[in-house]
């Protein structure tokens, strides 16, 4: 479609990023297609465990190949040189999103070790204080909310719902 | 008549009404929190009903059920995160409407549409329960597979800017649904030897990761705005109860069509509110004179999606009451609660316990009225969520998502999946892949595969898909649906070409 043709450097960088996503998805999809093909069929049915995944990954791979070809035709040759700097700029602009995902990763991996209440308290405090305007009121609100949603929620689930959130080692 | 009056006297007693009110409030609050589903709310209510009379217990559970279908609307409209799987399509128009400064109107439209959807489904339930139930159970795997093929054509309505990326997203969803044990023989697939993949990717964790985590991450993209204490939604915090009621009633065709879609899908065992919500939205878009307005905050989208999912509550009761077959997990829990009280559910239910069945019909109507009253009175408080700054909402809702994902199966590994799927969802969103087709693929994948394989196990003859009349009707509907979508795309291309700006 004509409106899909990238016109600005950021649109060109976006199209290159999409091209990379098509290639990555194709690699995964083709690999899974081959794995599904190797699955043994059952004597009790016409289709085996691998038939439906083969159908899905076959269609997906074909669609991705077509998308890669269309994308390669759309991207101007000179656009690739500016891709690295455009990506770095994008990451700088989205620094809070990167920080949020790092916090989330640390939060979920530390929870089985230090337990839900402590992990949540630290996660909420760090994230809220980073995102909030630096005022006393905001810090106090962050502290109260962190306590309520860490130790308070843990108590509610344990005492009222009989659901025990991770306690830590 | 005596049986009806007996049932009515029990449902309308002060104690039952008070308990149903508490149930409706609990259902609304539970479903408003992302990660907590209507099913979880009903499961938590079940033990509380053991000491009640059978009709009182089931009335309380129905009020949680009806309240829950509406509660999912709150986070869908205000946060852009479906509170339950049955409110995915609600986010498409209610959220943009709220973002445009009309959060009160978005919620009010959804509440009224839910109310009328439930009432219409109750009327259909009373009139058509036995014939519809007999029709629903006669459908074999061929018909189910063809129905799913038809449902997959909804993707055409959900693709957004790019048909290509929409199809890729739908196929990624289908691919995700193939991870884990295969649904017929239980053979492990694509688990790479990891324990966390052996049982497959839990649908709700995928839903929360794809929609909630990616949406919350998008909210913090603008570092400067969030530091200024920017709110989620700026605009009029006005519920406009009666004006919006008229607005909903001015769309009778959309309302009735979406409710019928909800009832029909609810009556099919295995389908449910999540599919009804999307199908009703899709049908409204296709029938609309202004389909291009869908996804931008049109009232028709909100009405269709909410009437559709709420009507499944009545639809699900059709096979349950007529044949003793639960149509969904929630209906299975309702059935369990009747069995706990020594009431056998099946075709004789209406003959042996007519007062109970009439009482259930009445309880459905009363529950929807209670949901409406609770929402009208308390919606102002819910709307205050829109005034909370993003730096508060984002971390707190993230914690709710984590707790909800853990509480589903009590598995820490689900949390790792949540973070990974959330990251994938954000990456896809940033690359402008539409996320709704992906979720549709995850919902429909296992149903499609199970029925395709079951059909061919029963009779290894592919022609049965086109020789069985109902299956053929669904397949023809699927072909027409695709043809309609292609026509729409070609039409919009032609319009874009002829109306191209000369500069």
Helix content of chain A: over 70%
Counting structural domains of chain A, the number is: 2
Percentage of residues in helical conformation of chain B? over 70%
Mean pLDDT over all positions of chain B: 83
Main beta-sheet annotation of chain B: none
Shape, principal axes of CA atoms of chain A: flat
Mean pLDDT of chain A: 89
Strand and helix order of chain B: HHHHHHHHHHHHHHHHHHHHHHHH
**Which oligomerization state do the chains in this entry correspond to?**
heterodimer
Number of helices of chain B: 24
* Number of strand elements of chain B: 0
Distance between the termini of chain A: 56 Å
- Strand portion of chain A, in percent? under 5%
Ranges of chain A with pLDDT <50 over ≥5 residues?
A: none
What is the beta-strand fraction of chain B? under 5%
Number of strands of chain A: 0
Domain module count of chain B: 1
Radius of gyration of chain A: 24 Å
Polypeptide structure, described:
The complex is a heterodimer of chains A (169) and B (503). Chain A is mostly helical and 169 residues long. Chain A is built from six helices and no strands. The longest helix of chain A is centred in the N-terminal third of the chain and has 29 residues, at 9-37. In chain B, 74% of the residues lie in helices and 0% in strands. Chain B has 503 residues and is mainly alpha-helical. Chain B has helices spanning 2-11, 14-32, 38-45, 54-78, 90-99, 103-138, 141-152, 155-158, 163-177, 195-198, 203-219, 223-227, 241-249, 252-267, 273-287, 299-323, 329-340, 349-352, 354-383, 390-409, 413-430, 436-458, 464-467, 469-498. At the A-B interface, helix 1, helix 2, helix 4, helix 5 and helix 6 of A face helix 9, helix 11, helix 12, helix 20 and helix 21 of B.
